[in-house]
Amino acid sequence: MLVRWDPFEEMNRLHDHFLSGRGLAKQAFQVAVDIREEDDAFFVDAEVPGLTADEVNIDVEKNVLTIRGERKVEKEESEGTYRRVERQYGSFSRSFTLPETVDTDNISADLKDGVLALRLPKKDAPTPRSISVNAKK
Questions:
Q1: 59-to-35, 64, 68 alpha-carbon distances in Å
Q2: What pTM was estimated for this model as a whole?
Q3: pLDDT, tens digit, for every residue of 70-129?
Q4: Residues 81, 13: Cα–Cα separation, whole Å
Q5: Distance between CA 67 and CA 92 in Å, rounded?
Q6: Which helix (H) or strand (E) holds 15?
Q7: Beta bridge pairs of residue 93
Q8: DSSP states along 48-100
Q9: What domains are defined for the chain?
Q10: What is the pLDDT of residues 38-51, one digit of tens each?
Q11: What is d(CA 95, CA 66) in angstroms, rounded to the nearest whole number?
Q12: Rounded to whole angstroms, how far apart are CA atoms 57 and 114?
């Protein structure tokens, strides 16, 4: 028996397979960061291409710095029979525990050319102190 291969049928099968989620493992949207330390500050550079400053949130709570945002799928009109999307979309969140020497009140953030640049200025480390023990009778 001779079976005829139909490329359009094969394309439709692949299209259905991938759109159903069976063909691609869902990956978490991960933001790549570079962290460096200089004498007066720590610096965090995070790649957030395509996001505006309003789409990125930065919080510090209990010495934990958290960067959050969401890259939304742009509405596209397509005339073809299939579409391939390799860019990642969705929400992201990255958290970093800060050392005690970071002045959390003066952290600054700038967004330029898809890179979020944070400056975390340093402050003096807390000095240890002794506590005297009172003897009770």
A1: 17, 8, 8
A2: 0.67
A3: 877 666 556 667 666 666 678 899 999 999 999 999 999 999 999 999 999 999 888 889
A4: 12
A5: 8
A6: helix 7-19
A7: 68
A8: -TT--GGGEEEEEETTEEEEEEEEPPPP----SS-----S--EEEEEEEEPPT
A9: 26-73+88-125 (2.60.40.790)
A10: 999 999 999 998 89
A11: 4
A12: 15
Pairwise CA distance, residues 22 & 77, whole Å: 24
Phi/psi at 3 (5° precision): -105, 130
Amino acid identity for residue 4 in this structure: R
Mapped onto helix, strand or coil, the DSSP state of residue 89 is: coil
Helix, strand, coil shares, percent, the chain, to 5: 15, 35, 50
In angstroms, rounded to a whole number, what is the distance separating the alpha carbons of residues 68 and 58?
6
Distance separating alpha carbons of residues 100 and 126, to the nearest angstrom? 8
117 contacts 110 by C-beta, under 8 angstroms: yes
